[in-house]
Amino acid sequence: MDTGLLIALLNPTIALALGAAFLVLFSYQRHRPYLAALGASYCLSAPGFLLQYFTLPIGVALTKLTSNICFTIAACCLSSAIVARYGRRVPYVGIGIVTGGGLAAFIWFMFVQPDLTWRVLVMNFGFGALSLLVAAELRTVRNNGPTEKILFALSLLSGLNFIVRTLVVVIAHGPFPSYDGFYGSSYWTTALLSHALLSLLIALCLFTAAALDVMRALKAETHTDPLSGILNRRGFEERATLLLDQCGKAGFPVALMLADLDHFKALNDRHGHEAGDRVIADFASKLRSATGARGAAGRIGGEEFAVLLPLSDLGAARLFAEAIRSFYSAGAIDGLPPGTRVTASFGVAARTGREGLMPLMRRADEALYKAKKNGRDSVRLSYERPEKTFVAEPLAVG
């Protein structure tokens, strides 16, 4: 087998391997359709490269057209998948204009005004413009980690590869009058090698992104209570500690609210555990809606909940708790008999100085205990301040 054939088979082999890997990954993560688009993209590029080297019985012109159709669809799938992966709206119109224009120009210079050099230029310019379009979409992506920055750089590099490299090689070694010797030219060699390198880099980056997605999902599962849908105790403590640290550095007030469903055991005994589960899910849903994204809401025990409220002092936290209490006690819960009233008791404490989460929770729990002891369905506040630890200073001598 000659060197040219080995180089020609390099890209199809890499593409098929990467395409199969993405499709296998998709088979385990069906909720991420962008993985299927990536698999289709790489699988389609394999016959595209093979048909550049081998000619079908339909003739050279139709074989090259088929090859470039494969490349075009593969490029559309790849660009759409990358943009969709990062939550951006896929610019289907822009993708269609860029790739459709390139393919139309290719057909013109293949059948109407045959010119190999112009066919090379229009296809590469189309793919280069598509790469730059993806880079423009990724430029606005924020807080998704390092992968989008790497893909942004690779998209720019790919655009330069398709446009600048092609121009330089065509000016230096072109034009190309026919396919005789074309596959041994510097253009074709650099095109194959650069495409192989960029394909590997983009695929590795996307595999990393997919792995990060799985890790985030697993972390969310370990930090989320499956019944209530809000944070479990571990997740709440981690999130609350982070918020306390951020508010402490910024000098913002923070308050903590603990809530406990009243007579929950009796409700379970009377109406069954399924009804109890609905009560917990309903209360958690109301907490989550009221807390929003700025705070942290968690189920820290069987029927006990906690909410950390950044930018809230004791008065604001009391109003928050009273609103939850009155709203919840006045509402009906699906699945419970009409007229069944479910209430909750609340304890609220505001952070003092650099007070940590555990001391803050102890004070809020003491206030909650007072609410339970004094008839339930009420809000009690902790006015106590945490004890300060004084460090004795050495006496001055002399």
From TrEMBL:
Keyword Nucleotidyltransferase: yes
Enzyme class: transferase
SUPFAM superfamilies: Nucleotide cyclase
Assigned EC number: 2.7.7.65
Record has Transferase as a keyword: yes
Domain called GGDEF: residue spans: 252-384
Keywords in alphabetical order: Membrane, Nucleotidyltransferase, Transferase, Transmembrane, Transmembrane helix
Membrane-spanning parts: 6-26, 33-53, 65-83, 90-111, 117-138, 150-172, 192-212
Catalytic activity as recorded in UniProt: 2 GTP = 3',3'-c-di-GMP + 2 diphosphate
A Pfam family the protein falls into: GGDEF
An example molecular function term from Gene Ontology annotations: diguanylate cyclase activity
Superkingdom field: Bacteria
Protein name per its UniProtKB record: diguanylate cyclase
Organism: Mesorhizobium humile
Lineage, highest ranks first: Bacteria, Pseudomonadati, Pseudomonadota, Alphaproteobacteria, Hyphomicrobiales
